[in-house]
Write a structure and sequence with these properties.
It is a single chain. With about 375 residues, this protein is mainly beta. It has 2 domains: about 120 residues, Golgi alpha-mannosidase II (Immunoglobulin-like, Sandwich); about 260 residues, Beta-galactosidase, Chain A, domain 5. Helix content is about 10%, strand content about 45%. It has 5 helices and 28 strands. The strands form 5 sheets. Strands 16, 17, 18, 19, 20, 22, 23, 24 and 27 form a 9-stranded antiparallel β-sheet that branches. A hairpin with a 3-residue loop joins strand 22 and strand 23. The radius of gyration is 21 Å and the shape is globular. The N terminus is likely disordered.
Length: about 375
């Protein structure tokens, strides 16, 4: 398995400038720069598809390939975000701090791309929706589980130490009695505790210092399904917060190589403003007493938490990153919370993920340094020139 230097955070490229015209109708050149002090390894970048079509004068359904300066093909994916039309072209780049590199997009037949992300509804396991990439895995809980009385709209975390996609295998083996995914058989294990909480980094309205939690999702729709990015949308039945009905939608996206999901929440209600909290569950007897050693957070936009160590399975490290920062960071209601003011109907976007002591992170300090570097990548996104 590759080391944590390959844990990027997916970022949308800033279109820095458009220079001149293509010298050929069947090729354009991208100059991509890393303006920050952190190396980028296999970081996903996006280019607007309409610009590519215009520059290459593409006909309907004409195929393209992406190559680096040596002519080697780079895997890519056309992103639709659930629409009928292609919106962007996605592909990974690796750039040292301050480095600029050139890539070419041209017409042609692309080589097969290895699928590195995967997700699906799991009706055979009470309507879980589970997803993963070549680094980590997650799940959220659906209507069939709610029907049994188990209510949770938190995110679950599956610790992995393999590049392989394992969701289908783990479910099949667990349901057949062959091998429980609550035990580590060499690929990883599910030992994260969610319950009636936000789990790993979900967001909920707050009323008078009380988290107002929704129920299990009621619909799940896949918007893009690999090979490099998975995006899906969840909807929830209305629930109450401070006497107001809340209608919630979540859009979650996970890229290959990344330990972090991009999460966008939309809360609709009849008020002009809400307070919302992104939270990480703290499954301890008295989390406030241990917060000094198990949490790291600041208003710039990071909350991180070290879960209690498990004698057999090790330690899970968790974090959420908000690009615009948190207004308040605190321990409350059994969670480590980052709070912000929110305008109903708007998009509330942040990033959330976890690491594991048996998969590249040796300490909480190690994890928090990694999270800080991920925040820097958000603050200083890659730039591009199209020629």
């Amino acid at each position: 398995m590759q080391t944590r230097s390959l844990f990027p955070l997916s970022l949308i490229l800033l279109i820095f400038s458009f220079v001149g015209c293509s010298t050929s109708k069947d090729q354009l050149t991208l100059h991509i720069q890393n303006p920050g002090s952190v190396d980028r390894q296999n970081e996903m970048v996006e280019v607007a598809w309409k610009d590519i079509r215009q520059k290459l004068s593409l006909t309907e359904n004409q195929a393209i390939v992406v190559t680096d300066s040596s002519g080697k093909q780079i895997p890519c994916q056309l992103i639709k975000n659930g629409s009928d039309e292609v919106e962007t072209l996605l592909f990974p780049v690796s750039l040292a701090a301050g480095q600029t590199a050139s890539f070419q997009i041209s017409t042609g037949v692309a080589e097969p791309v290895q699928t590195m992300v995967y997700g699906r509804l799991v009706p055979e396991r009470k309507d879980d929706f589970a997803w993963e990439n070549n680094r980590t895995a997650f799940r959220v809980y659906g209507p069939a589980l709610k029907a049994t009385g188990e209510i949770s709209n938190g995110m679950d975390f599956w610790a992995k130490r393999t590049d392989s996609l394992v969701i289908d295998k783990w479910y099949k083996n667990d349901l057949s009695g062959l091998a429980s995914y609550h035990e580590d058989h060499g690929e990883g294990v599910d030992f994260y505790k969610v319950g009636r909480t936000l789990g790993l980094g979900m967001t909920a309205p707050v009323d008078n210092d009380t988290l107002c939690l929704g129920h299990n999702f009621v619909t799940a729709e896949i918007l893009d399904n690999g090979p490099l990015r998975l995006t899906f949308k969840l909807t929830y039945d209305p629930y109450m917060a401070g006497g107001h009905e809340i209608r919630e939608t979540r859009i979650i996206s996970l890229d290959a190589y990344s330990y972090f999901n991009k999460v966008t929440n939309i809360f609709e209600t009849d008020t002009t403003g809400l307070t919302v909290a992104t939270g990480i569950v703290m499954p301890e007897e008295n989390p406030e007493a241990n917060a000094a050693t198990t949490t790291f957070g600041d208003n710039t936009g990071i909350i991180a938490y070290e879960t209690p160590a498990n004698e057999v399975n090790g330690t899970i490290y968790t974090a959420a990153i908000h690009p615009n920062g948190f207004g308040i960071v605190k321990v409350s209601g059994g969670h480590y919370l980052g709070l912000n003011s929110y305008k109903p109907g708007s998009r509330y976007t942040y990033y959330v993920g976890g690491g594991w002591s048996k998969a590249g992170f040796n300490s909480f300090e190690d994890w928090t340094q990694f999270v800080k570097s991920e925040k820097e990548k958000i603050d200083q996104p890659l730039t591009i020139q199209i020629k």
